[in-house]
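F.,

This is the one I mentioned.
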């Protein structure tokens, strides 16, 4: 069963994705980041085709989530229009034009699997051969091979 915090994160995440899809965002990616940062739980990245679409997407996320009663902590980057960031506290939304998205490659930065939370049981080694009652033979190293030296004149 989902915890109240997890269900609210999922509700918020779904609302953000819906707001991005309303304005035709492309390549929407949701990354879980709670194991990488204590600042936020999710990073959502979307591609926009123009400066106007970057600003429209960021604005739509802000409007839709404020209407749900969600606090929007800030929006950055709408002046340049290449990359806008919407800070929703537990979720950070990046809306980027294709060149900026390829250059910064945020997926590589934030898309790391969570560490295992429980130790993995060690693998069982194959059964050891039974020891015989006779003493083991002493191993000797093989003799070194040497080249024959030519005779001196």
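My design for it:
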């Amino acid at each position: 069963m989902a915890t109240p915090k997890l269900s609210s994160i999922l509700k918020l995440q779904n609302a953000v994705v819906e707001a991005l899809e309303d304005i035709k965002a492309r390549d929407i990616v949701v990354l879980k980041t709670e194991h990488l940062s204590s600042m936020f739980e999710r990073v959502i990245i979307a591609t926009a085709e123009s400066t106007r679409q970057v600003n429209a997407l960021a604005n739509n996320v802000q409007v839709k989530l404020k209407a749900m009663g969600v606090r929007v902590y800030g929006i950055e980057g709408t002046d340049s229009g290449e990359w806008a960031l919407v800070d929703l506290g537990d979720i950070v939304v990046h809306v980027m034009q294709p060149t900026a998205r390829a250059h910064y490659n945020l997926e590589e930065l934030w898309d790391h699997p969570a560490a295992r939370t429980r130790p993995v049981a060690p693998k069982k080694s194959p059964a050891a051969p039974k020891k015989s009652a006779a003493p083991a033979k002493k191993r000797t190293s093989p003799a070194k091979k040497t080249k024959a030296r030519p005779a001196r004149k």
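Residues 4-110 form a domain with the Beta Polymerase; domain 2 fold (CATH 3.30.460.10).

Talk soon.
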